[in-house]
Amino acid sequence: MAGRSGVDDAVAAYLDHLTVERGAAVNTISSYRRDLRRYQEFLAGRGVTDLADVREDTVREFLVALRRGDPAAEVAPLADSSVARTLIAARGFHKFAAAEGLVSDDVAHAVRPPKAPRRLPKSLPVDDVLAILDAAGTSDGPRALRDRALLELLYSCGARISEVTSLDVDDIDVEHRAVVLRGKGGKERIVPVGRPALAAVDAYLVRGRPALVKKGTPALFLNIRGGRLSRQSAWQVLVDAADRAGITKDVSPHTLRHSFATHLLDGGADVRVVQELLGHSSVTTTQVYTLVTVTTMREVYATAHPRAR
After folding, report:
1. pLDDT tens over the chain, length 309 residues
2. Which domain of life is it from (predicted)?
3. d(C-alpha 80, C-alpha 103), whole Å
4. Is 254 marked active-site?
5. Which residues pair with 189 in a beta bridge?
6. Has 280 been annotated as catalytic?
7. Which CATH number among 1.10.150.130, 3.40.50.150, 3.20.20.70, 3.60.130.10 corresponds to the domain 7-99?
């Protein structure tokens, strides 16, 4: 039979365990500490100071409180994603307490966090993407040529921003119209490149990059000091081009990636092919894009089919 243990002492022991034995990152520890502090305050508000006094119903009440908020105390309800994160922290804490013999049972193991709603990826219409690409290359200067080539590749390949900024010149295969991308975990994939993107890269290599390069570097995209262009700078290139194109929506490199996938599926591409192009390890990850195309299909059906209504 486990002895009695104070909630605060048990939380401190759990955070030490995450830090020392699990080697959790500083940001992770900070997040757990914040979420568990909310749990501690909930328990203290109910007069619970000993971990042995916590029951499964107590944890369920905590879940309800997170989702409901407390208008009297001006505490807003949390979004389902935040509720899930906070409850996961509490569940981990109780699992640790039971494993360490601080309590007899893991009272939180049966309490499940809410499923986060499946958010549709943000994508842009084709015309908006083309406007951004045109706005990137507004002159024939080295930076404008670089920016156009950068954005053309992002959209043409559906690449992550880190994959494009890490490209070397030799990663572009002009003969086979392909590029070697290095994704998460260093996993390489070969992705086809469209003619407009290749033309933009060629123009940059011939008339832009030589003016930027300061020393022998294999990097494809260079900053004004001759070093490899950073992800942050590449992001700013896109933001500036979207602003010049008059696109008022929030646009990020991932927006171009999502647009790439959505436009392919709208054009009839198989989801498994899109999976390979995006570098997703599971087709399930890619299938979220099909939600977008199903919505489009419903709209077309409702307006075009004579028996739709």
Report:
1. 444 569 999 999 999 999 998 888 888 899 999 999 999 999 999 999 999 999 999 999 999 999 888 776 667 888 888 888 999 999 999 999 999 999 999 999 999 887 756 555 578 899 999 999 999 977 889 999 999 999 999 999 889 999 999 999 999 998 888 899 988 777 888 888 899 999 999 999 999 999 999 888 999 999 999 999 999 999 999 999 999 999 888 898 888 988 988 888 888 777 777 777 888 766 555 566 655 554 554 554 455 555 545
2. Bacteria
3. 29
4. yes
5. 181
6. yes
7. 1.10.150.130
Rama region for 268: left / alpha / beta (φ>0; ψ in -120 to 50; rest)? left
Q: Does residue 184 have an active-site annotation? A: yes
- List 184, 187, 207, 298, catalytic entry: 184
Closest CA to 67 of 85, 51, 53, 80: 80
